[in-house]
Write a structure and sequence with these properties.
18-stranded antiparallel sheet; 965 residues; mainly beta; 48 strands; Immunoglobulin-like
């Protein structure tokens, strides 16, 4: 496996070396510019002056000549320390050195000539350029001194976004700061945007996966030269940037060697015991963390201007994991004795015999309790008993009379990480500059402890690795033309395997392994109020994601105009394998009978059960569940972008930047055309057998129409920024723009609705007529008719008839969401080392995704609610004998009346995908920032945001994240 991964890396490195000689271009979106006007002592402009720019770290040079208006400009500059030299006959030579240029900064450096000889010079020493006089971009920059000096758990450079006001934490526990996996580095929100919707660029290359925004790879903390958090950017070259942009610029080598070796240590000897351990009476466990590494940068050839930078970092973290307190069956309950099983109020939790269920004479059902609250041995199901025996024995006193939280344990686990970066820069000539950079997380693995240690544990081992390769080429054929481009490839492999998978299989508990054809393990078991067995989300998962990016960018300097235009083409590939074992659900319903006047009434579910017990239901073999056979989708998304922008220096004080961007996010496709979508207007083929017309049917993609949703081809995004230099120290800036959001969320995870027929689900129909009252098909034989096999597209419009589907794609338009943004602010320079800012930001989101809406397209129309309890009347089922007998509607001769009143009565439910557009958002904020750089190297960035954010669609990932944790 690892040798194949190394071969793959070498292949792509070779591919990008070949790409260096091909006419491929890509916009360097982290680059900066320096512009200014050259004047004589009277204030008149000086045309024809020679201006030279030198990178003081690498000696790279650029040349320009002032226009008839005395203007010069250098575009597409790497962040660094620069020196500007200006010369003209009759004037002293002007030299300004030690000017620190940050990423994505449009700096103004005016040159005031003095009368004199060329051999004489005027020397000016400057520091960081903090005032942005030519754009309306709102950003905060952290240099490498801050990045290395500030405390940083697990040393992920993206943790620093949380040091800025207005950054919001990722939802449902998916946080940047809480783990050792790079993919969670993007789990934050900016500028009122949703988690994972921001654009993260590493050396200008998009670095997040399209499906849920996970970060492909984060560079080593010490490899980052600068990090910028951009709340608003009105440059038309940025795509999908309405939720903010974070730019990381990696270090390059210089004319001298620099390096270090380090080790960061955390040891449990220095820690207090955890709250949960104290609560459970457990001793402090072992925890050792060593995060160590080294980096080195310098010249490969000073004469040829070739430089390198390389870094390695490893992490070793043996630790003590704990589980609990959780609830497991007591010794008596394991044998069917519930005579000491109580409710929280101390009352006996009466267990009823589901096999005694009979009509109560009032249209409902009733049951008889077990004598002594003990299940007779002859009624205990052998498979149910085997499932109960998989639980460990209780090992601590319960919390209260109802035996809750009676198990706690500790065991060893560990985390191992290795990652490296390398970068090579080559200044081939004053006209051509090339760099290549690779970041590789060789492994990010966690091995949690086992506690059940019999194949029924709830945790998973995690194996992650990924890399990104970026190649950049900047060509300056003349002082007024810049052609800049690069190509990038990113790859991320993610694997999760349940602890102990394969240690036992279904045979060990008396079931046929054929019930779980894709996973050789024990079932996933849910038991109300008790711990689960197995994992809901990561039994055996293999996810492979790849991003390919090309962007081209050309800049032309005219007299007072800088015209920029370019294009991008992105391809995202997602291959998903997600295998689940058979699932068994045991609730309290089958063994309950809630008290009513004169007796008790059987109910399927209740939020306030006082009777029944899930372990009793398990022992009796009564429950529900399903077995799923899933396909392995191979998805791709293609994006095309074009833009044109003019940076117009109207005067020496006023700069206007106007641009127009076009984006076309093509609909998702699947390699083998296994996508399905729902057409609400189509006549369902079952109409023929019914003798009446019923609308609503699923259709399949084909070679002539491969798309998962309708195209949206008219997405134009105008952008405008205005900067006015009120005085030499005060700049007023306003901007507005339109930005498109991602077209989908979780596109490859939203099964089975996308792939109906290619997946199959066999339901454990554990009660007569699927009503949940009279048990049938016990857990020892949950699928008497065998498993439903995938049929592909052979059923055509009959697919899923008699059953429901979640995460369905509706046929028809799928408009891409967008945000409208605007801002206004003032920047004031306080001396040469500090800038204060105050401003307003606003945004309005439109057509955004609903996240995880659970919108049921088959919802009962509200006009029928007046029927009240009559909606639950049993009526003849017209689908019985026509729909598949393994489906809820095909298995019973009767059906609830409400089912036949639904818009699509042939389906039990139809829930839309989480990528359904239609939500709106609003964000308004007052922002205040103060940046101070002290002479001794100390830096201060202070920010305050007073904001209000509204969103009626929640997070794109919220339902998935909760389900996966």
């Amino acid at each position: 496996m690892r040798s194949s991964a190394i071969t793959l890396r070498l292949f792509f490195v070779s591919l990008f070396v070949l790409a260096a000689i091909a006419p491929v271009s890509l916009a360097q979106t982290f680059s900066s510019s320096i512009a200014g006007v050259v004047t004589d002592p009277s204030g008149s402009v000086v045309p024809g002056a020679k201006v030279h720019l030198r990178n003081m770290g690498t000696s790279d040079t650029r040349d320009a000549t002032t226009t008839a208006a005395g203007l010069y400009k250098f575009d597409n500059l790497l962040p660094g320390t620069y020196e500007i030299t200006a010369e003209a006959p009759g004037f002293k030579r002007y030299v300004q050195s030690n000017m620190i240029l940050r990423a994505s900064t449009a700096a103004t450096v005016n040159v005031p000539f003095a009368i004199g000889e060329a051999q004489q010079s005027v020397q000016v020493t400057s520091e960081a350029v903090l005032l942005d006089t030519e754009s309306a971009t709102n950003l905060v920059t952290m240099d490498d001194h801050l990045i290395q000096a500030l405390p940083n758990s697990y040393r992920n450079p993206l943790n620093f976004v949380f040091s800025l006001a207005g950054t919001t934490e990722g939802q449902a526990g998916l946080t940047t700061r809480s783990g050792t996996f790079d993919q969670y580095g993007s789990m934050f929100g900016l500028n009122g945007g949703r988690t994972g919707n921001e654009q993260i660029l590493i050396d200008g290359a998009p670095s997040t996966a399209v499906d849920w925004g996970g970060l492909l790879v984060a560079p080593v903390n010490d490899s980052v030269q600068e990090q910028q958090v951009i709340q608003n950017v009105y440059d038309a070259q940025y795509e999908r940037s309405g939720a903010g942009v974070v730019t990381l610029v990696t270090k390059s080598g210089s004319n001298s060697f620099h390096g270090a070796v380090y080790d960061y240590l955390r040891n449990s000897a220095l820690d207090a015991n955890s709250w949960s351990n104290d609560r459970s009476g457990a001793a402090k466990g072992l925890f050792h963390r060593n995060q160590f590494g080294a980096y080195l940068g310098g010249p490969i050839s000073r004469s040829r201007h070739v430089y390198f930078y390389a870094a390695y970092e490893g992490l070793r973290q043996p630790e003590t994991d704990s589980i609990g307190p959780i609830t497991v069956p007591t010794a008596a309950e394991r044998n069917g004795d519930f005579s000491h099983t109580y409710n929280p109020d101390g009352s006996l939790q009466v267990i009823y015999n589901p096999f005694s269920t009979h009509p109560d004479g009032n249209g409902g059902w009733t049951r008889d309790p077990f004598p002594g609250n003990i299940i007779p041995a002859n009624l205990i199901n052998s498979v149910g008993q085997a499932l109960v025996n998989l639980y460990p024995q209780a090992n601590r006193a319960s919390e209260g009379v109802n035996d809750l939280n009676n198990y706690f344990a500790q065991a060893p686990g560990r985390t191992d990480n290795d990652k490296f970066d390398w970068r090579i820069d080559w200044e081939q000539s004053s006209k051509n500059r090339v760099f290549a950079r690779m970041s590789d997380r060789i492994r990010q693995n966690t091995e949690p402890a086992c506690f059940f240690c019999n194949g029924a544990d709830t945790g998973s081992n995690n194996e992650d690795h990924g890399f990104q390769v970026v190649l950049n080429d900047t060509y300056t054929p003349s002082p007024t033309w810049v052609i800049d481009g690069y190509a990038a490839y990113g790859h991320w492999y993610e694997a999760q395997t349940q602890i102990g998978l394969g240690k036992q299989n279904l045979s060990a508990i008396g079931l046929s392994p054929s019930f779980s054809p894709q996973v050789n393990g024990l079932p996933l078991v849910h038991a109300d109020l008790y711990s689960s067995q197995g994992t809901d989300f990561s039994t055996f998962d293999r996810y492979v994601r790849s991003n390919v990016t090309w962007i081209g960018n050309v800049t032309k300097q005219l007299n007072r105009h800088t015209v920029k235009f370019g294009a991008n083409y992105d391809i995202a590939f997602m291959n998903l394998r997600s295998d689940r074992p058979v699932t068994f659900d045991f609730g309290r319903g089958f063994t309950s009978c809630e008290p009513v006047s004169g007796g008790c009434k059987a109910v399927v579910s209740s939020d306030n059960f006082t009777t029944g017990n899930a372990i009793a239901s398990m022992l009796l073999g009564t429950g529900s569940g399903q077995s799923v056979i899933s396909m392995d989708p191979a998805m791709s998304l293609h994006t095309i972008g074009l833009y044109l922008q003019d940076n117009w220096r109207v005067s020496n004080r006023l700069t206007v930047t106007a641009g127009l961007r076009y984006e076309n996010q093509r609909p998702a496709t699947e390699r083998f055309n296994r996508l399905t979508y729902f057409d609400k207007n189509a006549v369902n083929p079952i109409s023929t057998a019914l003798g009446s017309t019923i609308h609503g049917a699923f259709e399949y993609a084909n070679k002539d129409n491969r798309y998962a949703w309708g195209t949206d081809n008219l997405n134009f995004a105008p952008r405008l920024g205005i900067a006015y230099k009120v005085t030499d120290k005060l700049v007023a800036r306003v901007g507005a723009g339109l930005f498109y959001a991602p077209a989908s969320a979780m596109v490859s995870f939203d099964a089975p609705g996308q792939f109906l027929g290619f997946n199959s689900t066999t339901n454990w129909i554990g009660s007569q007529n699927s009503q949940g009252f009279v048990p049938t098909n016990l857990v020892s034989d949950p699928f008497p008719n065998g498993l439903v096999q995938p049929v592909g597209n052979s059923l055509d419009g009959m697919v899923q008839v008699g059953d429901g589907a979640g995460q369905i794609w509706p046929k028809g338009p799928h408009p891409i969401g967008y945000t409208e943004q605007w801002s206004a602010d003032l920047q004031y320079q306080l001396g040469s080392h500090a800038v204060a800012e105050i401003g307003y930001m606003g945004s309005r989101g439109r057509r955004l995704m609903y996240g995880n809406p659970d919108f049921n397209a088959d919802q009962l129309p509200t006009q029928y609610l007046a029927l009240g309890s009559a909606l639950l009347d049993d009526v003849p089922n017209p689908f019985y004998g026509i729909a598949d007998p393994n489906t809820p509607l095909g298995s019973s001769p009767t059906v609830f009346r409400n089912q036949l009143l639904r818009p699509y009565p042939q389906f039990t439910y139809l829930n839309y995908t989480r990528s359904l557009p239609g939500a709106s958002s609003a964000y308004d904020a007052l922002t205040v920032k103060y940046t101070k750089q002290f002479s001794g190297g100390l830096s201060l960035i202070s920010s305050y945001v007073w904001s209000k954010a509204l969103d009626d669609g929640s997070e794109d990932l919220i339902g998935w994240a909760i389900g996966g944790l």
